[in-house]
């Protein structure tokens, strides 16, 4: 269902449309729900939706926190209950990663192999 939707409606210029919005609209159709909140309540196909902060604990307007040495504790605290660290690559791709940046701390902790390439 979602793969077919992506193949027919993919839009390379609209990030959220291809990810969260597409999944949301397909789940609403699949579960015959009026809103996302009702999907967890209805136990639709054993699907359990996780809150957005599980994946986006630092939302895109604040992406620079990952690169601000003064935000190390804030980032660490926000990522504490998150499954992933989405560092908004389209926005951050030209930012150089340096020691003592929160993203460097994250690389050291989770992927030390890549951290050795940062200065």
TrEMBL record:
Record flagged with keyword Transferase: yes
GO terms for biological process, alphabetical: glycosphingolipid biosynthetic process
Domain Alpha 1,4-glycosyltransferase residues, every copy: 3-115
Annotated GO CC locations: membrane
Gene Ontology molecular function terms on file: hexosyltransferase activity
Key word Transferase present: yes
Top-level lineage group: Eukaryota
Keywords: Transferase
Protein family according to the UniProt entry: Belongs to the glycosyltransferase 32 family.
Protein name: (salmon louse) hypothetical protein
């Amino acid at each position: 269902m979602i793969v077919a939707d992506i193949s027919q409606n993919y839009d390379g210029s609209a990030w959220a449309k291809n990810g969260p919005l597409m999944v949301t609209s397909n789940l609403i159709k699949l579960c015959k729900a009026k809103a996302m909140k009702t999907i967890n309540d209805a136990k639709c196909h054993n699907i359990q939706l996780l809150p957005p902060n599980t994946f986006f604990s630092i939302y895109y307007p604040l992406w620079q926190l990952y690169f601000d040495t003064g935000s190390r504790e804030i980032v660490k605290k926000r990522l504490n209950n998150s499954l992933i660290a989405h560092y908004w690559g389209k926005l951050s791709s030209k930012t150089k990663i340096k020691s003592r940046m929160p993203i460097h701390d994250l690389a050291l902790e989770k992927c030390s192999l890549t951290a050795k390439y940062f200065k």
